[in-house]
Amino acid sequence: MSRDDSSRGKKPSGRQGGNFKKKSYARGNSPIKKNTTASKPQDPNSIRLNKYVANSGVCSRRDADIYIAAGSVTVNGKPITEMGYKVKLSDEVKFDGQLLNPVKREYVLLNKPKDFVTTIRDDRGKRHVSGLISSASKSKLLPVDKLEKEHTGLLLFTNDGNMTKTLKSPINGLRKIYHLVLEQELRSADLKKIQEGVVVDEKVVRVQDISFIADAPKREVGIEIYSSRNKIVERLFETLGYKIQKLDRVVYGGLTKKDLPRGHWRYLTDQEVINFKMIK
C-alpha cells in the first residue's frame, strides 16, 4: 500500500493540517450560530420599579411586584402596573401617596477600638471609624451617635436618616450598658447617689442599674442607662468628682458584642432592623 493510499479516508488533525480548525456543530449537524446582536447598554440612571420600591425599605422586591400590580405605586403621578417597568432616579415615585427614596437602607454594627474618632468634621491626621467599615457599603454610612476617641464599644452606622433621628431622641430612651474603669475607687455612698438619681445640668439622671464588676477592683463598674443626652455617663461621674479611665459600650439597644471582636463589623439581621424600627 502506498503512502497516499494509507492516508486515504483519514481526517486531518490540527497538527497535520496546519491552520486547520475543527468546526463546532450543534445538535442536527448544523453550524452553531453566534449571537451577533449587540446587547443594549444599560442606563445607569434607571432602575426597575420593584427594586426602587424595595430599596426604599417599604417591602421586599417580591411584595413590591404585588403592590405594583395592584396600582399602589405611582410614577410622576401616574399609576404603573407594568411588570419590569423602569424608572429614572430623577422620577417621583410614591407608594400609597408616600414619596420614596430608592437608596437601599443599610445597617452596620462596629465594635470600635481605641484611638478612632467618630466626629463628622475633618480631623486631619486622625484615624476615623468610617475607615473601619469602608468595605461594608458603597453608600455613605454615618454613626448614629458618638464615642470619644479614647472610648471603645458598640457603634451603629446607617444611611437611614429616619432611624438615626429616632434613635438619637427616643421617647422612652435607648438601652445602653457600659463597662467603666474609674481612676479611683467608687465610694459606696456615691454608688447609692447614682442609684437614686444625680442632677446634671439641672436635670436628674436616672440609671436603670449600676453595680461593681464581680471579682474586680472597686474602680470597675457596670452601668445601664436609657438616657440619650450627650456624654451623659462621663458628665454623671464628673459631677461626683470621678474621672473615667476606660469606657466600653457593651450593649446598644438589643445589640451585644457577642462574636464581634474589637475593630470588626457586621450587618444587622432583618429582625434586628425590625426591632429598631419599632422604637418610638
TrEMBL record:
Skewed-composition ranges (Polar residues): 32-47
Sequence ranges assigned to domain RNA-binding S4 in this UniProt record: 47-108
Record InterPro entries: PsdUridine_s_RsuA/RluB/E/F_cat (IPR042092), PsdUridine_synth_cat_dom_sf (IPR020103), PsdUridine_synth_RsuA/RluA (IPR006145), RsuA_PseudoU_synthase (IPR050343), S4_RNA-bd (IPR002942), S4_RNA-bd_sf (IPR036986), TruA/RsuA/RluB/E/F_N (IPR020094)
Keywords annotated in UniProt: Isomerase, RNA-binding
A Pfam family matched in the record: S4
PANTHER family: PSEUDOURIDINE SYNTHASE FAMILY PROTEIN-RELATED (PTHR47683), RNA-BINDING S4 DOMAIN-CONTAINING PROTEIN (PTHR47683:SF2)
Entry similarity comment: Belongs to the pseudouridine synthase RsuA family.
Domain of life: Bacteria
MF terms in GO: RNA binding; rRNA pseudouridine synthase activity
Region feature (Disordered): 1-47
Protein's GO biological process: enzyme-directed rRNA pseudouridine synthesis
Protein name in the entry: RNA-binding S4 domain-containing protein
